[in-house]
Design a protein that fits this description.
CATH architecture of the largest domain: 3 Solenoid
CATH class of the largest domain: Mainly Beta
Distance between the termini: 155 Å
Radius of gyration: 43 Å
Low-confidence stretches: 33-38
Largest sheet: 8 strands, parallel
Number of domains: 2
Number of helices: 3
CATH superfamily of the largest domain: Single-stranded right-handed beta-helix, Pectin lyase-like
Length: 428
């Protein structure tokens, strides 16, 4: 009879311990396996439940990306136009590089004429306006600016330098946010300049300007070339210059050591008059020289000429830019009269002698203008009035460094309140 403390193998009937999981007699397992079924929920149902959550996450990611792109620092490049329209939380601004007299017109390309190897300087202005109103916004906008730099790429001819001064506010153009004075050497040349405006918020504004330098001819005319011994001869020469040379050529007339009587009028185009400095004789004018040429607004230079008057009349009258250097003015009612509308006029005088005139220098314009605000190293002796300034004043300062005033009835009669710098002048 089988032992009830044991169990029988379900396969061979052999007696096994109740806890046995293997029959040693038939080598078969005595445990029954239970088949497990997977959960009733399918993967498709899980996916359908997850899709709304995924969609929300994607929308949030897209919104975050858009916000980042809209708020990250951006670069605004003018693309060669010289102008950028920039918008921030305070409004929209027109930002451009241009000229003092055309503050709303960008100047992406500048062409300057130059004599070979001569040095030149001219100003470039940064203007900032409210786009909708055109109102000057320079001061307000600069409060948001971290830095402004200006530099040129290497010129085509590196030996002919082209450089910017660091941009800064200058009275030359009161409405400009900043002004940079550009320096270049007379060479056939070209270079691209870039103004970089870095905002406090990290935005960068790039304004580009290309400077092209075109060489012009310098024409020197001497007494042996054409007759110029009399005022009549000289007048014919001056009137015919336009037919002899190009519009932008520089013309230097080298005068003999003679005395010119009567009036000489320079009205056709600018010319430079060089008085004789060889030997003891000097070129002398006893009549008036009138300067008011048409054409390009270049400076008319007068070098080393004696203007000798007889107590009345005017030695030199000018409505265009004129610069006397090393000249002597004696015995005139008025030695130099500057008249006209200010710009494009103006006078400058360097190392000149004014002696015994009723009026040495008279600014009589509707707007005082200085194409060069410094007139150094002049001597004013025994004049009734050395300098009389009339007209609407400008913010430009007239400097008189190294000038000496002695024995004049009135040294400076500044009737319009023009700003002056006389700190380096001498009054005796």
């Amino acid at each position: 009879m089988p032992d009830k403390t044991f169990v029988s193998c379900p396969h061979c009937g052999s007696q096994l311990h109740p806890d046995a999981s293997f029959c040693p007699y038939c080598a078969r397992t005595v445990n029954e396996r239970q088949e497990l079924s997977p959960p009733a929920l399918s993967w498709r149902r899980a996916l359908r439940r997850a899709l709304p959550i995924l969609a929300v996450l994607l929308l949030l990611a897209a919104a975050g990306t858009g916000w980042y792109l809209s708020t990250r620092p951006q670069v605004y490049d003018d693309g060669g136009t010289g102008e950028v329209i920039y918008t921030d939380e305070d409004g929209t601004y027109q930002i451009l590089l241009g000229w003092r007299d055309t503050p709303y017109e960008p100047a992406p390309v500048i062409t300057q004429t130059a004599e070979q190897d001569e040095e030149y300087t001219f100003p470039v202005c940064l203007f900032i306006h409210h786009k909708d109103t055109g109102i000057n916004a320079g001061e307000i906008f600069l409060r948001k600016v971290a830095s402004v730099t200006a530099e040129f790429d290497t010129p085509d001819d590196p030996s002919g330098y082209i450089t910017y001064d660091p941009p800064a506010y200058d009275n030359y153009a009161p409405d400009a946010a900043l002004t940079s004075f550009t320096h270049f050497l007379g060479r056939e040349n070209s270079a691209r300049g870039t103004w970089t405006i870095t905002m406090d918020n990290g935005d960068v504004i790039l304004l580009h300007q290309t400077l092209n330098v075109d060489l012009i001819e310098t024409v020197d005319i001497y007494p042996e070339d054409v007759p110029m011994d009399t005022t009549e001869d000289l007048q014919v020469l001056v009137d015919s210059i336009g037919d002899r040379v190009g519009e932008y050529d520089v013309v230097n007339i080298h005068l003999p050591a003679v005395t010119y009587e009567g009036t000489l009028s320079i009205t056709e185009r600018p010319v430079n008059l060089y008085g004789n400095t060889d030997g003891e004789g000097r070129t002398t004018f006893t009549g008036t020289v009138q300067v008011n040429p048409g054409g390009v607004n270049w400076i008319n230079y007068l070098y080393d000429i004696d203007f000798v008057g007889s107590g009345d009349g005017m030695a030199l009258t000018t409505a265009r830019r004129t610069w006397t250097i090393g000249c002597r003015f004696t015995g005139w009612q008025t030695a130099i009269l500057c008249h006209g509308s200010g710009y494009p006029g103006g006078i400058a005088y360097t190392n000149c002698l004014f002696e015994g005139n009723d009026m040495a220098v008279h600014y009589n314009t509707n707007q005082v203008s200085f194409f060069n605000g410094i007139s150094p190293d002049n001597i004013f002796l025994h004049n009734g009035t050395a300098i009389l300034i009339e007209g609407e004043p400008t913010e430009d300062i007239l400097g008189l460094p190294g000038c000496r005033f002695e024995g004049n009835g009135t040294d400076i009669d500044n009737r319009c309140g023009q700003p002056l710098d006389i700190s380096q002048a001498v009054f005796q």
